[in-house]
Amino acid sequence: MGSYGKLAKRAVETEMPIMVQIQQLVRGAKNAVSLAQGVVHWQPPKQALDKVKELVWEPSISRYGADEGILELREALVKKLHNENKLYKSSVMVTSGANQAFVNLVLTLCDSGDSVVMFAPYYFNAYMSFQMTGVTNILVGPGHPETLYPDADWLEKTLSETKPTPKLVTVVNPGNPSGTYIPDPLLKRISDICRDAGSWLVVDNTYEYFMYDDLKHTCVEGNHIVNIFSFSKAYGMMGWRVGYVRNTFYLLCLLS
To answer: I want to staple 135 with a disulfide (CB 3.0 to 4.6 A). Which of 36, 46, 130, 234 is the partner?
Structure first.
């Protein structure tokens, strides 16, 4: 790096995204198909595309807005959370995708040197978010070899025996990359374990509508729980970078 010095250690030690690694592996290969990135084949709803045409001419859209997102959108999302997700203590912050929501949470809830917990197979962006923000004590719990459900017994033991207690536990429901839905009783048990240990629980619900075999997606609510949602997959808005995070008003104040 010459006279400019070295790069930040946290940047150097952050793992390369798996999507980039796969792209490098298949580059030049014939008949290779990359399954590294989740991209749906449908376009955003026509109503959204038509509304955007109107909004680009609205002067207020090009000005600075509320840090937590447009009021009308947040009010609509609160109603959605009430009606669909049965979350009734909802304060919402709109973010540039669910990934920014997760980074915001790590920066707000964790300090360098804190322990955090995630489960294999884990979402690589969440792992990278910990690394790039200086949280390097990442404890990776096992998933059941057949169901890939997070191991709640391991979590309970880990949170009770690790000192200081891990600051944050995160799960993706349904899972990325596993696709496994965490049954409601198991999700509630994980929530109770985190509450009793004094750990935050962050649940990524990006794939809430990707449910099969007559299963129904459910959420958990509590003062120690943060739920993350996204428009990307369900509405074909991957490039729009719109997501939102939900918790109590206290956390919203911290994030604003």
So the answer is: 130
Instruction: Give the torsion sign (CA, 157, 162, 164, 168).
Output: negative
- Kindly give the pairing relationship between strand 243-247 and strand 91-95: antiparallel
99: Cα within 13 Å, side-chain hemisphere: 15
| Tokens matching residue 158 | 């880990």
Q: If 0-12 CB within 10 Å is exposed, 13-18 middle and 19+ buried, where does residue 194 land?
A: buried
Phi, psi of 37 (to 5 degrees): -120, 135
How many other CB atoms are there within 10 angstroms of residue 233's CB atom? 19
* Cis status of the peptide bond prior to 166, with omega within 30 of 0: no
Beginning with the edge strand found earlier in the chain, give each strand of the sheet holding 168-172 in spatial order.
91-95, 243-247, 225-230, 200-204, 168-172, 115-119, 137-141
Distances (CA, A) of 120 to 60, 101, 170, 201, 220: 44, 21, 11, 16, 21
Residue 71 amino acid letter? L
Q: Per the structure block, which two tokens stand in for 212?
A: 């099969």
Euclidean distance between CA atoms 60 and 62, whole angstroms: 5
pTM, full prediction? 0.85
Q: How far is CA 121 from CA 39, 163, 190, in A?
A: 19, 25, 17
User: What confidence tens digit (pLDDT) does each residue in 118-132 have?
Assistant: 999 988 889 989 998
pLDDT tens-digit profile of 58-107? 888 888 888 888 888 899 999 999 999 999 887 888 888 888 899 999 99
